[in-house]
Amino acid sequence: MPDDTHRRHGFRTRMSHAGRAGVRIHGFVNPPVHRGSTVLFPSCEARRAASARRFEQVMTYGTQGGPTHYALEDVIAEIEGGSRCTLVGTGLAAVTLPLMAYLRTGDHCLMPDSVYGPARAFATTLLARWGIETTFYDPCVDEAGMRALLRPNTKVVYTESPGSHTFEIQDIPAIARAAHAHGAKVLMDNTWGIHSFQPFAHGVDVSIQALTKYVGGHSDILLGSVTVNTEEDHLIVRSAASAIGHYASPDDVWLALRGVRTMPIRLKAQEAASIEVARWLEAQPQVKQVLHPALPSHPQHHLFLRDFTGGCSLFGVVLQPRYGEADMVRFIDSLSLFGIGASWGGYESLAIPTTGFITRTAGTGDYGGPMVRIHIGLEDVADLIADLERGLAALG
Questions:
Q1: Is the pLDDT of residue 199 over 60?
Q2: Per-residue buried b or exposed e for 63-91, using 16+ beta carbons within 10 Å of the residue's own CB
Q3: Which end of the chain is flanked by fewer CB atoms within 10 Å, N or C?
Q4: In angstroms, rounded to a whole number, what is the distance separating the alpha carbons of residues 362 and 135?
Q5: Alpha-carbon span 192 to 194, nearest angstrom
Q6: How far apart are the first and last CA of the chain?
Q7: Treating both helix axes as pointing N-terminal to C-terminal, what angle do 250-282 and 67-80 enclose, rounded to 10 degrees?
């Protein structure tokens, strides 16, 4: 279909047709899985010409990707409103790749205090060993506050909105204005906001996705992506990925292509269910606060309304201060429909403790009571609420 027509179609239509050969062809609906390491060429000259373009979608060796990879890269770039995408083997790899690509010894990096735990660990271990200093800042910083945090050697401002576990919405446009005026790159973990937040329209330079989550949708793959919107940034990211040897399994890529077809419907269903459950929890006497950006009670709800077109299925719950960490554990252990496990974005509901499992060094993350992170799957909402009701009853 013509590009201009394609862009006018809705999200569900685009996700049904992107990354496919089209409907006016003879053959199976889904593209095949292309596996391989060695790529053959008809001549040495053909191999030389392909090698000169190896950071484009040109097959030179298995680690550079193939048709299955290229199809998903195009789909993810379209979802995020970017121009080029690089696939990697995990969501954490998508976090660390651009940090390594843009930072050098002697540089300074800014990260929100609410950042994903393994991202924080990467900054405080490997980046620190390589002579790169990281400052963890209050995620609710405004433009003036960000300007004050920037140093002459600050090269990267990392963002994650909402924040991991505590769900602070960052003022990304304000942060980006300050960072760009300083000459720093803005990186964003946009996994929570896939489709509902357009990173490049809000000043982000590099958008990170854990495709393990909503794109996969079935808790059976590990995959990540790094999307950019300029050829310069694509060259920086892609060349770093090549130098490090990043690679994504074509089988996982194919499963992600399959998952993306139903992602719009799953996202909508899980968003609606999460809001219904969050509102119910907000009314329970055992609950002090529900940290869901789509709720009017959320501290940065105004930023959510300004910058996001929707939410997703992950949010936090703060229990009343009269309860302790042991009570939080008892509540989670009492649930029968909520699994206790990391990750999210799949079809199954999950509940894990926040209190005792997060690190904060900039004075953020204390909400006055023990905290739980909840992910809402595709189960019937009435059943999930009944299960949560039994769990809260166990608190007394």
A1: yes
A2: ebbbebbbbbbebbbbbbbbebbbbbbbb
A3: C
A4: 9
A5: 6
A6: 60
A7: 30
pLDDT tens, 134-186? 999 999 999 999 999 999 999 999 999 999 999 999 999 999 999 999 999 99
CATH of domain 10-258: 3.40.640.10
Length of the chain, in residues: 396
Question: Can you tell me the distance from the alpha carbon of 275 to that of 315, in angstroms, rounded to the nearest whole number?
Answer: 9
Q: Are 323 and 371 in contact (CB under 8 A)?
A: no
Question: Is the CATH code 3.40.50.800 the one for domain 264-393?
Answer: no
Structure tokens at 157: 């401002």
Q: Calculate the CA 139 to chain-centre distance.
A: 16
Quick one: which of 130, 78, 86, 92 has its CA closest to 108?
A: 130
In contact, 342 and 314? CB cutoff 8 Å: no
Residue 272, pLDDT > 90, answer yes
String of DSSP letters for 268-292: HHHHHHHHHHHHHHHTSTTEEEEE-
CA distance 146 to 172: 11
Cis peptide before 285 (omega within 30 of 0): no
- C-alpha distances out from residue 203 to 31, 94, 187, Å: 34, 19, 10
Q: Domain coordinates of the chain in residue numbers?
A: 10-258, 264-393
Three-state DSSP class for 352? Answer: strand
Distance CA 143, CA 133 (A): 21
Residues 188 and 198: beta-carbon distance below 8 Å: no
Which CA distances in Å does 88 have to 73, 95, 111, 149, 248? 10, 10, 22, 31, 5
Give the whole-angstrom CA distance, residue 345 versus residue 322. Answer: 31
Rounded Cα gap, residues 196 and 80, in angstroms: 9
Q: What percent of the chain has pLDDT over 90?
A: 84
Beta carbons of 215 and 260 less than 8 angstroms apart: yes
